[in-house]
Write a structure and sequence with these properties.
heterodimer; A: mainly alpha; 2% strand; globular; B: 252 residues; mainly alpha; Ferritin; 11 helices; 0% strand; binds fe (ii) ion
Chain lengths: 319, 252
Amino acid sequence: MDVIEQELEELETAFQAKVDAEQRIEPKDWMPAKYRQTLIRQMSQHAHSEVVGMLPEGNWLTRAPSLKRKAILMAKIQDEGGHGLYLYSATETLGTSRDEMFEQLHSGKAKYSSIFNYPTLSWADIGAIGWVVDGAAIVNQIALCRCSYGPYARAMIRICKEESFHQRQGYEIMMTMAQGTKEQREMAQDALNRWWWPTLMMFGPNDANSANSAQSMKWKIKRQSNDDLRQKFIDATVPQAEFLKLTIPDDKLAWNDERGHYDFGEIDWDEFKSVVKGNGLCNRERLQARIEAHDGGKWVRDAALAYAAKQKTRNAKAA
Amino acid sequence: MTDKDMLFDYLLRLGDNSLILGQRLAEWCGHAPMLEEDLALTNIGLDLLGQARMFLSYAGEVEGKGRDEDRLAYFRDTKDWRNLLLLEQPNGDFAKTMARQFFFDSFQYLQFEALSNSSDDRLAGIAAKSCKEITYHRRHSSDWMIRLGDGTDESNERMQRAIDELWGYLPEMFEMDAVDDAMVADGIGADVAGLRTKWDAYVNGVLAEATLTRPEDSWSVRGSREGKHSEHLGYILAEMQFLPRAYPDAKW
Ligand SMILES: [Fe+2]
Ligand SMILES: [Fe+2]
Ligand SMILES: [Fe+2]
């Protein structure tokens, strides 16, 4: 073993010891290259999800059925954009730039949560997204508040507070519709039917098939397994659906006294893979919308830069 | 028109301006040139929506026929809308959206400053609260006028074109009709014709700093105070009002 390898091993041991001792890793600390890469991948994917997630909800912003609902939705979408911003900044601490991250999103190299490849077809979808999609996001993100990487953990703590508002507001839309006219009840049930399974997929593959999980758990990037988080979400959500008198579209769903959890049916992972691969109803629109916003806005960003440069020269001359 | 009718109409004008512009800004959601601007546009849109709700609620109370903010927003057809023609114009590119915003912000700033001294306490309160927001809106849109005007050749051309395309919608802002006159006489409303000089001074200052040319006053379009609108408003309403109109018995 040469000196460099030995040094590297010592650094890795010290790093793991720090993680094991529940100390936060900060941007200036030494970290294994793979840890950095894993975080960049996961955090930028998370940031992209916040931003792409603005689109399906934005789809109903101009059609919100009351001014109050419009204001609440507008504020929610604004929060999601803000989450995107914190997360891009937090990811930048790992040595990448927002432009690089955008490039990877636009080229298809970086992913975003596949849930946003589904369309929002009725107003009840806005309720369902807030209730179950944000609900699932909270379960994931609460676990991430204890992530070993400091900037990510701190971003999550800030974000979680807002997400719980979103969930409550979404549930309130569902409640109003579930207690509303026959058509509204139908819209609410239809929305739940369409969003339920894709939401369960948000937690990722079953633990047995989750390639990256073990290392992420060891590094405490991940604190709980996909299956545990999914179970937690289901256990919390089933009573909420019962209260709304809506039916979760899973005939295997049943309380298991022995386990102290709900049993549920098999997730259709083929559908998941198919949608991730590009066969969702909105994959192309979502990505295209982001590319057009970015490319179409280049002249604006260029102008801002050109103006700032001119101002700098003018100030230098004046001084 | 009775005094009550006039106050109702006057409040609709104020509320409809804010609502239609807010609705237009909502169309940008997720599509702005940069994430920071997406947030800024929603932020401004939210302020405008908040103003609209206060004015329309008040209008409904003044009218006294049981119409609330939503009844007024979702169940009026084009001829009953009182927003300025400028505000229903399509977003176009970012330059056009910003030019529209700048012209209106710099007008609304002065209008609301005057209204914050209204003899109608409730109106004065809404205007005073909104003034703080509009101060920020005006700074935001003025900054973009300057950045785009004095940015690159392309941004300058786009902004100049935007200004030229919108210029003829601006005189309508300063028009006074019988309702305006009555409101001013009662100490309730703002003398918008009297704001022109101040508006010109502010706008000319920004245009000059932005190296943009103030267009000739060669055309002007008017009619919104009598419910005469461009064709755009019908589509805005069709989209905005769809759900409550399709399901009139539903509560949301
Ligand atoms: Fe989210
Ligand atoms: Fe979020
Ligand atoms: Fe959220």
